[in-house]
User: Fold these one by one.
Assistant:
Number 1:
Amino acid sequence: MAPRSVPEPVLIRGTGLLGTSIGLGLRSAGADTYLSDPSPSAQAVAVDIGAGRPFPGDITASSAASAAVEAGSTDGTTTGAETAPVPGVVVVAAPPDVAGQVVIDSLVRFPGAVVLDIASVKGAIRREVDAAVVGGHLTPAQAARYVGTHPMAGRERSGPVAARGALFTAAPWVVCAKEETSPEAVSVAEEIARVLGATVHRMTAEDHDASVALISHLPQIAASLVSSRLQETPAQSLALSGNGLRDTTRIAASDPQLWVQILAANAPDILEILYGVREDLDRLIATMEEPTAPGARLDIAQLIAEGNAGHARIPGKHGAPPQAFAVVTVIVDDTPGQISAVLQDVGEAGVNVEDLRMDHSAGHEVGMLEISVLPGRKQDLTDALTAQGWKVV
Ligand SMILES: NC(=O)c1ccc[n+]([C@@H]2O[C@H](COP(=O)([O-])OP(=O)(O)OC[C@H]3O[C@@H](n4cnc5c(N)ncnc54)[C@H](O)[C@@H]3O)[C@@H](O)[C@H]2O)c1
Ligand SMILES: O=C(O)C(=O)C[C@]1(C(=O)O)C=C[C@@H](O)C=C1
């Protein structure tokens, strides 16, 4: 059964982490999805995972591999003889540096379809589409079917194997329409975001790019800079790693290929922020060079306090104001079935899990399951789990 106001079928161009996650989410909402990727293996994995059917015919780069698929000589799922369906929506989930071209190609190739992209930087693609109109490659009516969007959810891994249908649940999803954008295209883009469980935020491409420079691109740079210090670190130092390091470096594992495109496409906005960071860093270095000088400790305290103030402004779950959840930490054996057994008991105690994370301490065969709950429920949960024989710390 099709979700309300998402015209089917939905064609997803680019079946990596994001495209496959969108396919999985839409499929579980009952939508009919087709998949296309110039990498035959990325497309085949996405199909196998259940994100949709292969789109018949070759709409990717005219590579030998895709020609072979058209001739029906690979896995047999696609043949040149099959009639290509007419998509109602095209979701472009290709890397940022080709997303603009794939958007333009989709607007021309599929005359009735709403076309949206989900690339991490919006201004550059908007400018490519506008330039195609000025250059006569697109009509204004074709360009009006395009909506730039950006789900603020992802992972530090790429490719379809890392995909999750629930990736977008409760995440912000930015929709960047222009005055000329057709209202139908905007409502289709917003409905897709909602069907996938996200919360829609409307803004201009310029405001979006300035925002993500700070809330997404700076954190990536910071994680990479911190982690790059670890390259020559002796193993005995790394063995002491705790949550401080893990919390600040998870996204340092991200794909360099993707991030070189994101950072290059948003360089002016990122630079503004980096200048500010450089000032703070210079101030800290000067202070640390003479840590006992009068005022030095106050300077350090101020820097940490400024961090406290900024951190306190990060919104909480579902975009709500930050809320301090209480954490109940349970020690579990590092064996299959332990986490589900704890969660079963949490459910039976009638306590809602607001957040969940698992930590392993180096060299120990146990894990620490951190269950975030509303502060008023902490004691109830601690008592209930202790009564069930769990070790709560
Ligand atoms: N990774 C994240 O956390 C994240 C979050 C939000 C948005 N995005 C955006 O989503 C898009 C995809 O990122 P990803 O993380 O899924 O990357 P990915 O590397 O996992 O997947 C990209 C896929 O696009 C395919 N591709 C390459 N050229 C193509 C073309 N011309 N036409 C169609 N497909 C093509 C690749 O073969 C690959 O399978 C990017 O624009 C990225 O900025 C990423
Ligand atoms: O959490 C992650 O691993 C992400 O990659 C998420 C994240 C982000 O910065 O929030 C990264 C880049 C995307 O454009 C959108 C989302």
Number 2:
Amino acid sequence: MARIGIKICGISDRASLDAAIGAGADHIGLVFFAKSPRNVGIEQAAALAHHAAGRAKIVGLFVDPDADFLNQLRQSVRLDVIQLHGKESPARVAQVMAAQGLPVWKAIGVRKTADLDAARAYQGVTRVLFDAKPPEGADLPGGTGLRIDWSLMAGYRHTIPWILAGGLDPRNVGEAIHATGADFVDVSSGVESAPGLKDAEKIAAFCEAVRAAG
Ligand SMILES: O=C(O)c1ccccc1NCC(=O)[C@H](O)[C@H](O)COP(=O)(O)O
């Protein structure tokens, strides 16, 4: 089996960034969403992206961003991937891909099989990221620690490369990989000691568990 991709999302300080890369994460998520405890400012993000250059890819995570914000941010922050984690339509996702000229990942909230089918509308996107669907009216659309019912994904025929997210942690990620066949996993709150505070030991344990499962 090829190496399983790992994204550690919601990094906001240099020590956690080094811990994630040192543990073997290949993608680092920077959250640009003011309501999130993981939100990073433009200067902070620029410094983190610069520090990670050549060692890991930087995924900028946005919730229904407007074009001005994306354009302004990209003047300062070097991104490798844009992750759209809001209610972006397939047409809006295609627009962002064309305008920004970067790989785009679209997050899809999953509670039932029909939610997996919803991903088919996003053909052409670089990857879809299946995350647990938060309850209606929740403050955050992601980084919630909620988990997908992995049995929905067993044997599912995907038509777009995908990533498994939602409630993963060092203890359950091996089982999640075996249950779903994921070849790319994403984690945020499962490697934190408090919301927004990454824990280097948990990051290392998570990456080790992914390697063991692969
Ligand atoms: O992490 C956030 O705070 C966040 C805020 C708004 C939109 C998305 C957000 N995170 C997206 C991610 O890619 C998370 O890694 C993913 O939702 C999994 O989170 P978790 O269940 O905490 O591992």
